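Before a colleague's protein record goes any further, I have to sign it off. My question to you is simply how this chain folds and whether the tokens agree. I do not need a full report, just your reasoning and any doubts. This is what I was given:
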Amino acid sequence: MDVELPELPFALRTYGPDGHWSYDDGVLSGWAGPRQDRFVPPTGEALDPAADAPRLLGAPEGDFQLIARVTVGFNWAFDAGALYVHTGERAWAKLCLEYSPDVATVCTVITRGHSDDANSFTVDGSSVWLRVSRTGRAFAFHASRDGKRWTFVRLFTLADEKETGAALVGFMTQSPMGEGCVVTYDHIEFRDTWPDDLRDGS
């Protein structure tokens, strides 16, 4: 299913399980069902081929920043809402507001064959602003408590898009240990530029 948001210059398409995505008056909502997640364990455990989570993704051109305030209806450990980047079946990344495992935390997962997992900082309440940026093959993750001053979280690359196709970017929900959670995204914004400085708070 294709979805168009007035804030974005590209269409979005649903991937994975049904996320019951809806958009109304500037607010995008999605739902993760029980035990839904995207994570490839780095400990050598076999990947469950059915493991997946609802995603709503599109393919912006050139440099960009995608920004949204994310609010998660936390119920169980590791419930999360995320901004998500995908360049291949085993080449993707997510910037999450996650219940990790009992406090809201900004965390990241980068998957290149297998996934890593890194926590950044904790958040009071259930909302935070997230931003994913791209220039060339480089991506950057930032987070903010107020949408004004941004904390640099991560700079990375994924698989070569010439081999995997255009990068997809958008939204993801997850509830890997629980019975599901609702995530909302508002103050959605798209900029066709890379940040001037990744570490100065802008």
Notes: The CA atoms of residues 2 and 141 lie 26 Å apart.
